[in-house]
Amino acid sequence: MMIEKFLEYLKYERNRSELTMQSYGEDLRTFEKYFKSVDEQLDWTNVDTDVVRDWMETMMDSGNSAATVARRLSALRSFYKFAMAHKLADANPVYGVKSPKRKRRLPVFIKESEMDMLIDNVDWDDSIKDVRMRTIIILFYSTGIRLSELTNLDDKDISFVNNEIKVTGKRDKQRIIPFGDELRNVLQYYIAKRDKLIVRQTDALIVTDKGVRMSADQVRYIVKKTLSLVSTQKKRSPHVLRHTFATAMLNNEAGLLSIQKLLGHESVQTTEIYTHTTFEQLKRVYNQAHPRA
Asked: What residues does each domain of the chain span?
């Protein structure tokens, strides 16, 4: 019952998405299932800090990543913050419990030379399929937007007067991203081709042959298939293109704060991981090139 009240609060008072609510619900029910297995007499009002810590330890022992454990703990924190504020619980068992440290993985990216080869040298034809595919790749690479941001784009979000895209990111925060003449020409050609061959059922920018908004899975498949033309690396996703955008910007002397704003990162610390990427790249070049390395 308490979980349902919390989810209603998220939906009606915090205006959170269905996906967010589903994620919170699953994480909270995972914890509920755990503490019931420990002691059937336990409920949301009498679990203590030791139970929360034991739950974390059990998850880690079961092979869950630190990121998964941290996410579930975050859901629990939000839940008890709500429960305390609405007097549904007298104590917060998550208070003082620290999230496990996450391993910081360097982002995977495609080399600039490989992106140049993909955009300029692949034998693209003039079919709507190829035009749309190339547009998606260049859109990701030129702006660094997230997959969800691309699939949510409508025609009205593109300004060809100012060469700008209005993007709606996480927690419905909007940002403006400038773009250059190449993307402008690609977008205009795609839109003209799309409107000539497809009857749209939606205002979406990227649509299927049936005229409906293209799903995240469909875009993900297109990106993976297209990147395989120039890259053999295992990870070939829209997020890799986001990393590729950021790394290319940094390698070409863009400032970290500018990249942060373009990516829509809350903190510059998140963006700083790309400096590690370029430093690792420098080390590889040094080790390969220096005669005494």
From this structure: 2-85, 112-289
